[in-house]
Amino acid sequence: MENILSEQEVQQLRAETRGTTKTIHFNNAGSSLHPDVVVDTVIDYLYEEAQNGGYETEYTYREELENTYNLIARLINARKDEIAIVENASIGWWLAFNGIDFKPGDEIITCEMEYVTNLIGLLHAKKTLGVEFKVIPNDERGNFRLQALEDAISDRTKLIAVTHIPSTAGSMIPVAEIGRIARKHNILYLLDACQSVGHVPLDVQEIGCDMLAVTGRKYLRAPRGTGFLYVRKEIQDKLKLFFMDGFTTQWVTETDFKPRNDARRFEVYEKSRALTLGLGKAVEYALNIGVERTWQRVQYLASLLREKLKNINGVTVHDFGDELCGIVTFSVDGMEAATVKNKLAEKHINVSVGKAVSTLIYMNKNKLGNIVRASVHYYNTGEEIDILCEVLEELVRVSV
């Protein structure tokens, strides 16, 4: 098909990523390998700061820095004034969540795939504010139950807060369908898209979310310490502000101040301009390739990996659900996940350990301890998958 990345394109993209010559990287859900242009952008900016001064370099690159907001808005089909650049998805999520004016007795609805940081936020709100939360469990096939969500809504429901792609599973939840339910009942909708942006095509207009939290280091291939928060224009004035400085205000007098009239009210002034520029370059890189095209390749590689893993005696794949993503989780009989990770690292193959605490409700429900998480990206290859599986087969033989 015309939209699928060709092998020639994949090889070119690998040539533009120095790290692919040194390691087989299946830890993209942790932190992807950066394109060379992103690395060079950050380093070159830092060199200029060192030579010319921080404020002076910022002024020189003011248009490029400003354009980062335009690029992010294009990526998720938002408005520029709905974007705030923050350090990571957790910061963005907490700014949005804690900006909501919760009252005792308010209810929050979440999913069993919710990330640990968000779960802590829900528990903290329950302890300190008297807020209750309900968990919508997946069905027996691993799918989010939309009818159960409808049934759980009451006149006390203040927020639907869910994670699109979980940390320790390969499934996805139907975020656009959830958005339609939220709009139907006029309920605020907060989406954790930490694993999603750069991974799957996302359109906040189609999803219908009010707030969306994103990190840069994962599938977006941006530097660590970058991320952004989307806040729909119509609700910005409804969220409380916690961190304020001169940047977050339109004006300030000795007796009063007024917040900015855009999402940058949720930022603070002092942040790394080099990393912001690197984030913008990573977004531009993704847009130039096309997330729709890279998503097709990720799906192909993940499906290939799951099938090959299922054919290895002693390896169990744990992903289930009708819609799967680029995260592949598995375990090796008789071997701790950390041991598998370390053995693979000896062969220059990167995977990660999916900790039980990271997706606590899901892992407890399915009686899963820590699992091995291999997350593919478009620059991975079938040959790399074969090497991974060959090493795993040898590990199984040795452990028997």
Describe this structure in words.
InterPro entries: Aminotrans_V_dom, Aminotrans_V_PyrdxlP_BS, PyrdxlP-dep_Trfase, PyrdxlP-dep_Trfase_major, PyrdxlP-dep_Trfase_small. Its cofactor is pyridoxal 5'-phosphate. This is Selenocysteine lyase/Cysteine desulfurase. It holds the Pfam family Aminotran_5. There is one protein chain. This protein has 400 residues and is of the alpha/beta class. The strands form 4 sheets. The protein has a 7-stranded mixed beta sheet with strand order 2-8-7-6-5-3-4, sandwiched between helices. Strands 11-12-15-14 form a 4-stranded antiparallel beta sheet. Strands 1-13 form a two-stranded parallel ribbon. It is globular. Helix 4 packs across helix 10 and helix 11 runs parallel beside helix 14. It has 2 domains: 138 residues, Aspartate Aminotransferase, domain 1, CATH 3.90.1150.10; 250 residues, Aspartate Aminotransferase, domain 2, CATH 3.40.640. Helix 8 links the parallel strand 5 and strand 6. Helices cover 41% and strands 16% of the residues.
What coarse outline follows from CA principal-axis ratios? globular
The CATH superfamily of the largest domain turns out to be: Type I PLP-dependent aspartate aminotransferase-like (Major domain)
Average pLDDT, to the nearest integer?
Answer: 96
Number of beta strands: 15
Total count of helical runs of at least 4 residues: 14
- H/E element string? HEHHHEHEHEHEHEHEEEEHHEEHEEHEH
Under the CATH scheme, which class of the largest domain? Answer: Alpha Beta
Tell me the structural class.
alpha/beta
